[in-house]
What does this fold into?
Amino acid sequence: MPSNELKSLVKRLNDDFGDVDPNNNDKPNLMSKETHIEPQNSSLVYSPKREVQESFEEAPLWAAVITYIGYLILNVFGWLRDFLRYSGLEEKKGAIDPNPKGFVPLYSEYECFYTRNMYTRIRDCFNRPICSVPGAKISLIERVSDDFNWTFKQSGRTIEALNLGSYNYLGFAENNGKCASNSIEAIKKMGVASCSPKQEFGTMKIHKDLEETMAKYLGVEDSICFGMGFATNSTNIPNLVNKGCLILSDELNHSSLVLGSRLSGATIKVFKHNDIDDLEKKLKDSIVYGQARTHRPWKKILIVVEGVYSMEGSIVNLPKIIELKKKYKAYLYLDEAHSIGAIGPNGRGVVDYWGCDPKDVDILMGTFTKSFGSCGGYIAGTKKLINHIRTYSYANCYASSMSPPIAEQIISSLNTISGADGTDEGKKRIAQLAWNSHYFREKLVKMGFIVYGNNDSPVVPLMLYMPAKIRAFNVEMLKRGIAVVTVGFPATRLTESRVRFCLSASHTKEMLDKALEAIDEVGDMLYLKYSKRKVHNA
Amino acid sequence: MLDLIPDYVKNAPFYHLAVEAFLLVWILWLIFRKSYSPAEKNKLSEKDKKELLEEWTPEPLVPDYEFKDSVINPRVVEGPVAKYAIVNGVKSLNAASFNFLNMVGNEKINEKAIKSIEKYGVGSCGPRGFYGTIDVHLELEQRLAKFFSVEEGIIYSYGFSTIASAIPAYSKRGDIIFADEGVHFAIQKGIVASRSDVRYFKHNDIEDLERLLKEQEEADKKNPKKAKATRRFLVIEGLYMNHGDLCPLPKMVDLKYKYKYRIFLDETVSFATIGKTGRGVTEYYNVPREKIDLISGSMELSLGSVGGFCVGSSFVVQHQVLSGQGYCFSASLPPLLAASAIEALNIIEAQQGEMFPDLEKKCKLLHQKLKSVNNLTVSGIDISPVKHVRLSFDNTLEKLEKIVDYAQANSVSLTVARYLKEEKFSPKPSIRISVNYDLSDSEIDLIVNVIEQGIKSIGC
It folds into this structure.
């Protein structure tokens, strides 16, 4: 029902409003939290600082107030414009339902209002087409709009820009070199697709090779690969839990995890982002009180977390979660989409980063889109688990198997990362990424920006707060030749619009310095240096 | 002192005062006693909790059962899964994969894919929103829209996630979906994800559909306010993957305007197989495409690539840019696969004169020949490029698997149709044969003969 949606939206808005109450001491721990965690094996951490720091500095009150005023203005003008459109004074743009009258409207009123009056204003910042490798530098296709972003035309020109937006962590987005040439060979040998699911006639030798290589790399018994990362989560969680089971899910989990959890039919409880105490409390209560109403004991409890959170730049506190999972006999599903390859001294994700045993994580999941410069996802774990997934996975049974050149790209990049190709290229890339992440983040903090997340994370979110600054920052940076990703509601909370920088091993120091200089300039121009903190150990 | 006491107290009899004093004490007791609460008595002590925590034993993550070898260790193909594929070192005729137009391994397509890697690399390293939109994606979207002569197209990076994302983008909790019992698994999951009320009607049974629609009409009359806010959708397949037959589209379009539902038509199988020029069932039935609200399809069958797409009016399709989960939150399709799909479309558009009548001819021929095989039933329409064949008596999965093994040993690759237990309406076990338009008459004979021999070999 649309009205239900509206209610939940209003509730969400209210929740957000509640967050900035300066007298409210019971703030969500996302704000103003700083944790200091010692990794288990500190010798493994290559950070210049031995201490892992995660910071979520609170927005200054004035910024929060102006953010709300910003949304208020947007809403008031939205209503006004809608009134003008309704009364026929302004031309209605956008597509109209081709069906005759009498059909129930296809979209809910609020959704349309948001798209029409807010999203469209800044639409040119998203879905920007490119026409090159999404590497350290990209060519953007210039789009122009002569009707305020309702439609776009390509001007025929391209804009060369430094790319701080793609998930190209280890720099494997390349159109030459070993990976590309191996993939080309794979096309010549095997074509581009199999047109059959793996259970029927789509299993190719290259898939077997990939699964073996991946399992070996992760240090587990077996693995299974799928053609799409999103579907790896959404089509496989239902094989692990069902009705009568409980999923404890981090509040900031990716939508694929949320969708998979929903499809499973299990009960979902959400715990505060990366908050071990909250997780423990919920775990304990769930076991003690059992299922709601019937009070039957839960069949299984599955904790679902991500390695690196792509919007916060935070790193999961894995050792503590493993401790909890063992203590309370729960199972652990770890999504390493943004961490595999990008984190840890050997690039083996957060498990490697914390020096944990991969066998302590029941289900290791990750994607090949990011660090490997390819496409798809994997699940790894015990032989028994993987065979179970092979049997019951939606994707394994119904979806077409992975394209051979895509699989080849992963195998080649994996061999480089693990050093199996006999070079230290992989090590170099991992070290470069780590250095870049630290350098870039440290500089931003020193400049006085509010930067979220963990010091070791290659994802660096910089807070903008105000909706109008989303476009301003994006456009100003592009003028200076830097392509960035800016995000706002609904990808983040309403008041927490931000820029998200994704660093890459292919960025050189010169590139980062150029970017930093531009950010500094735009930051001053847009009053983005909100931080009130004295820079620690500067 | 005694003067202070009012007269009425002095005059009151003693028993009166005693009763009042007692009442006063009782009221005070009622107020201040520790109230009895059943919840408190049942409250768990820390010790109880500890015991409960220790007692709880979860079920194993993976239940204990014996894995089926044919499922966890399927045949492994070396080289391309083309018309002929190499299995266990032996070249065998492929009647198992959905390579209807023989696009897999096509030189022109491979060439385009290679050129694409040379220009864009392999992966796109981002979702469509954040620098993952590459010019080939836009081109493919336009080409697909043009192919169907509609306003707009949108592509997904995975066939399965296409319709499974598209349905929940529109249909929400409280809305009603009328769906055919025969729809394939991805559609079923899309319906579950939407959390809408679903009414399944019997496969291709227009009367049953109308019965459900009338029922709903009655319910609407009782609650017109709710009816005004309840969207209705009809979700059907053009050619049913699990049945091999066509949907009665014209009748469904007629009913659309009477009962005010929107039609989502999945053309996974029928796209680029059915119709004179491969435009699907709308072309076959000559139904104007504006009457269908959304057409979805897959590039993993006829086009020999990976991914899926939706086409339709801008009003409908554009919405998925923000609301199609598999579109928004997933990395975009690798450019080489988009380039391959474009090239496949080029091939189709260049050869349309012969390709589809040819495919139709082969489908009919195979259908007819299969029909003549003893102890075998073939379901579906004769022009369907997927054929489900079943044993007339004692049709079990084990027997069908044996026939498939027999065929493989004789260098013909067949497959049983694999379904999960979770299917809403489990189809009967079958061998699913896919027709490649490039099959020669003798190759068709080979397939039929092998099946015939296979049936004999298991003693039926």
Remarks:
- The CA atoms of residues 169 and 319 of chain B lie 8 Å apart.
- Chain B touches chain A through 121 residues (CB under 8 Å).
- Residues 107-347 of chain B form a domain with the Aspartate Aminotransferase; domain 2 fold (CATH 3.40.640.10).
